[in-house]
Structure prediction request, 174 residues.
Amino acid sequence: VMIFAPLFMDMLKDFEVDTELANGDAISRIVNATVSLAGDRLGVEVAGLAAVLPALTQFGNSITEEGVRLSTGHAGTVWALEQAALKAMEPGLGDVDAGTDELAILGLGGIGLSTAVALRQRLPDLRLHVYDSRESSVERARGQLNGSVIYHDSERDLFASTPLIVSAITGERD
Prediction:
């Protein structure tokens, strides 16, 4: 069973401050009602929060519905990014004639860092280039990543480092 409760960050920007969707409690009520419907009426035992729902629900902590286990969906996103990166590194794809052992990751939040860790575990010799504008995310990455990791000082520097870049960021870029 798949139920969509479409709440996107750009929707929140479109609503006025005094509307219901601008209120975090309202978002929790909407998601709780959706989880309740899935569990009570459809027998769902596990629900996945996708897109921005993890962030809007404090990673599911504001969901109080009993009997339905929650997943943020991050593991599936990380797996998909890892698979896409591995495929992109194969010989003959795009400008990568002979394959590559280099990859850049833009963004070291939950998804970006987890993808970097997964790739590092699978490919210990991978030359990994990373950048995040948040110093706290960079410091967390320094504690979790090992091997050949090049930390860049800017997006521009990262983009110049390798033709293969995994973007794990949200929001607008300059």
User: Anything to note?
Assistant: The first strand starts at residue 46 and ends at 48.
